[in-house]
Amino acid sequence: MANQAVSRARSSGTADRILDAAENLFAEKGYSATSLGDVADRVGIRSPSLYNHFKNKEALYEAVLERLLAEFSAPLLKLESGPVTNERVLFWLETIVRQHHANPNLARLLQHAALSGGPHTNELIDRLFRPMFEPRVKIDGEAISLFENTGLQPWAVMAFNNLVMSYVTMAPMYRDLLGRDPFSEEALEMQLSLIKTLLRAVFEYKGS
Amino acid sequence: MANQAVSRARSSGTADRILDAAENLFAEKGYSATSLGDVADRVGIRSPSLYNHFKNKEALYEAVLERLLAEFSAPLLKLESGPVTNERVLFWLETIVRQHHANPNLARLLQHAALSGGPHTNELIDRLFRPMFEPRVKIDGEAISLFENTGLQPWAVMAFNNLVMSYVTMAPMYRDLLGRDPFSEEALEMQLSLIKTLLRAVFEYKGS
DNA sequence: TTGGGAGGCGCGATTATTCACACTGCCTCC
DNA sequence: GGAGGCAGTGTGAATAATCGCGCCTCCCAA
Predict the structure, then answer these.
(1) A48 touches strand D (CB under 7 A)
(2) SS3 of B4, please?
(3) Residue B172: how many CA atoms within 13 Å on its side-chain side?
(4) How far is A31 from chain B (nearest CA, A)?
(5) Strand C contact nucleotides, protein CB < 7 Å
(6) What is the pLDDT of residues B136-186, one digit of tens each?
(7) Triad A6, A7, A8: Cα angle to 5°
(8) In angstroms, how far is the first alpha carbon of chain B from the final one?
(9) Are A198 and B199 in contact (CB under 8 A)?
(10) Residues from chain B contacting residue A197 (CB–CB below 8 Å)
(11) How many C-beta atoms surround the C-beta of residue A167 within 10 A?
(12) Facing residues of B47 across strands?
């Protein structure tokens, strides 16, 4: 599977280069199947040198997660900062789709975690998804959960997250079958168009 | 992640018990992270004894795939045996959803393959999905691809496969968040209802 | 009696991790 | 300004655990 590797232009410090390599490898192979030797090879150093920057394999994994979580938490915070209208949910969804296209590694890591577990899986899930389902205190003091007043059921929220993330985790598989690159610009627009159509269908779906 | 393990009532021969254990482990951890020691432990034998039944790890993996492919190929063959109308596609989709609920292992294995590769990945993809996209020769000799005359674009076919399979691969993650068992009977009905609604939306979507 | 299927033993490779050591740049003190 | 210390970063070697897998032995049922 030729999964695209994300190449960041971040600061060129060794620690960051290790994080980049580890992120791509963890996302591709999962936690336990990723060897520190592989990570070190990609950085161009020997594996004991990794220990100058991270306490151990698990700490490296944590650091990778932390960086990704920070990157991907922004859009939801932005959505939460205002009224949750249909249009703003639509905009939020589009932002997320673009974000996962730009860096598929969070989706891949999360999929590995959902399948096999691994360190800090529960924490990862909580920090990513709890805010979407948890009742929050609004300005008027009334506790509501996000999306509730758009008519979206938690089921649908889940389904759309799956749709967005599985595009990233499964699409490479369809490369040959579809005859085009799932990470191309046209493919992105196609997916956005399809997802928006579906979302509008769900806005009118009152469940069960 | 407490992924449900499929327990089959198949013939109680050692080879079958090995296949059952291996299927669950490969589905959970993926090919390389699954150790033959784990498989043997579940069967209740020592790992060298596995070699009395399978040539090596890869052959065991092949056998697991083969059994799953046989199990999951049936519905599509049935759909192909008649005219591809909207109603029959709907029925086919429902069958597939129920099938993945009953045994989530194929979806999980496929997801691992899509993420990390592994032996025979291309063959696996081909045998599962090629029939859906490949032009076939119909009775009147005209070459059409399945679904073409329902207005479904390959994109949508892909999206729905993702939706069905990612429910199985990701749902365990939502167990706490949703507050109910994603593999319960009610959850299955809920997912079917949502998916059918979406499919009807797609039937009217002509894509851009 | 025979042979399929189980276990014991162990080789060679890989893994995460530790350790002793070398080099580099920088600060400080004589 | 040179000497010395020190923190940071790299290396190769070594260790203990685990892995896939081959070899050989033993047992039990047909």
Answers:
(1) yes
(2) coil
(3) 22
(4) 9
(5) 4-10, 14-20
(6) 766 666 777 777 777 777 888 889 999 999 999 998 888 888 888 999 999
(7) 115
(8) 39
(9) no
(10) 201-202, 205
(11) 27
(12) none
